[in-house]
Amino acid sequence: MPSSTRSAAALLVQLTDSHLFAEADGKLLGLATQDSLLRVIERVREEHSGIDLLLATGDLSQDGSAASYQRFHQLTEGLAAAARWTPGNHDEAEVMHAVCAGSERMQPVLDLGAWRVILLDSAVPGAVLGHFDETQLQLLERALSEAPERHHLICFHHHPVSIGCDWMDPIGLRNADALFAVIDRHPQVRALLWGHVHQDFDEQRNGVRLLASPSTCVQFAPGSEEFQVGSEAPGYRWLRLHADGRIDTGVSRVTGIDFEIDYSVTGY
């Protein structure tokens, strides 16, 4: 890769937890998820150009239907960026792979400038919680070991640390210790990025940035002890990855979305 390319900062956009349905008018907790995603995509277009990579970090679909994944692709391809997807607990991984056949959207490792981006599958079929099986941990170890000179961003769906919402602790990544055991052996890891929690999170662990992001649809209330929908608007995260390992990042939310929460839905 030319040094000029390696020295340039890369711009990434993360869209997560879109919860699309086979039906275009499907709603989650009373919010029309396709309309909400379209509003977020419109905001991305207004705020950024020249996006190098679109990251979709799970729960693209609420019902795991092929139609929902096809629609997610159709709605986002106008951003004119390379894309990588990884599944969440609502997704059907086999359907995702089938829809993405012939493309690189489900490829787990991508080199981008001075960085390597790794996408892991933390979903457990039939469960809400997350877990990395041995193949995923081996993939991570191999990808890190093969590129010690690069900075690394590791992406997945489930949160590996407590985010301050008691109800979400049991449905996070259940073997986070195994993840951190690998990461702690590789000082080139700069950040972890996930979805699932439907809210902004930005902390550090041993010099590694820990980032979570708003959903493109319904938000969860920060600091809640029990399941609670938040008042924040749908949004996305942008990241600028610099050649020296620095990360600039922020969250942007849409405006003017009002909906009535469907309180008949009592769980996630």
Automatic annotation (TrEMBL):
Entry annotated with the keyword Cytoplasm: no
CDD domains associated with the record: MPP_GpdQ (cd07402)
Top-level enzyme category: hydrolase
Gene Ontology terms for molecular function: 3',5'-cyclic-AMP phosphodiesterase activity
InterPro entries in the cross-refs: Calcineurin-like_PHP (IPR004843), CNP_phosphodiesterase-III (IPR050884), GpdQ/CpdA-like (IPR026575), Metallo-depent_PP-like (IPR029052)
EC numbers on record: 3.1.4.53
Pfam families recorded: Metallophos
Domain of life, source organism: Bacteria
Occurrences of domain Calcineurin-like phosphoesterase (ranges): 13-199
SUPFAM superfamilies from the UniProt entry: Metallo-dependent phosphatases (SSF56300)
Keyword Secreted: no
Keywords, comma-separated and alphabetical: Hydrolase, Iron, Metal-binding
Family indicated by similarity: Belongs to the cyclic nucleotide phosphodiesterase class-III family.
PANTHER family: CYCLIC NUCLEOTIDE PHOSPHODIESTERASE CBUA0032-RELATED (PTHR42988:SF2), PHOSPHOHYDROLASE (PTHR42988)
This protein's name: 3',5'-cyclic-AMP phosphodiesterase
Organism the protein comes from: Zestomonas insulae
Gene name of the encoded protein: cpdA
